Amino acid sequence: MLDYLQEFNFLSVTLRLLLAMACGGVIGYGRSYRRKAAGLRTYMLVSVGAALTSVLSLYYYEMMTGPWAERIAEVGLKFDGIRFSAQAVTGIGFLAAGTILRSAHQKVEGLTTATGLLASVCLGIASGAGFYSLVIVSFAAILVILTVMFPLELDFKRRTRNINIFVEVDKPSDFASISELIRARDAQIFDIEMEGQDPETGHYSALYSVKLARNKASHSGMLSAIAKEAHVYSLEEIIS
Question: On the chain, which terminus has fewer CB atoms closer than 10 Å, C or N?
């Protein structure tokens, strides 16, 4: 049965497209659940489109070695079936790049969405080629990375000694006392990016890049200490 499905026929083509659509749909559903820009339909379309490139490559090969063989021999035409899939990978690069955004406070968003789209394209190409074992293993790996690894990565970032702190205060001179407080906890300030005054609230803001001391590596401890300052209007840990 597996040998039959790896051949180029109507049933195998249908199964390959459905497999690509299903894999893209499951991955996209998880992204939609997290309210990401590229969601269910985007991932499904990307995966099916990539599968089509592989199927189209196989179709051309079958036709050029079968019904079109005599004409191909006359004109001396050469065919590289990889080009369709290669163009699909190149094309998704433009779409993926559009999902990467730099938001406020030096926070970059969309990297996982972009790489997820690229992975879905590769899944679709493998599905279209009938490489079922690769599709199953890769699909499982991608699901683990996007679901199981997400909370683990978030927890890891919160346990590291490096922390980015966004602070809003009443006046620029208040940043001096915040810097003193941070250093008093034996932390090292790598950089302070002043973001100026908010025209609506009139508050001043800055982004601190800090490395915590080994014996005081608690993120919540540092945030709590800064929050107790009377002149601090708002406080946020930036996790990219």
Answer: N
Inter-residue contact 123 to 24 (CB < 8 Å):
yes
112, 115, 121, 123: CA torsion to nearest 10: -80
Phi, psi of 102 (to 5 degrees): -105, 110
Q: Verify that 180 and 152 share a domain, yes or no.
A: no
Domain of 186? 160-237
Asked whether 63 and 95 are in contact (CB, 8 A), the reply is no
Residues 117 and 181 in one domain: no
Which distant-in-sequence residues (6+ apart) come within 8 Å of 23 by Cβ? 47, 120, 123, 124, 127, 135, 139
Yes or no: say if 61 and 72 are a contact pair by the CB < 8 Å rule. no
Please state which of the ranges 39-43, 195-199, 227-231 shows the lowest mean pLDDT. Answer: 39-43
What was the pLDDT predicted at 226?
Answer: 92
| pLDDT tens column, 126-171 | 888 888 888 888 899 888 888 888 888 778 777 788 888 999 998 8
Q: Which residues in the chain belong to E strands, given as ranges?
A: 101-102, 108-109, 162-169, 188-197, 204-211, 232-237
Asked if 41 and 133 sit in the same domain, the reply is: yes
Output the DSSP codes for 74-99.
Answer: HHT----THHHHHHHHHHHHHHHHHT
Q: What is the pTM of this model?
A: 0.63
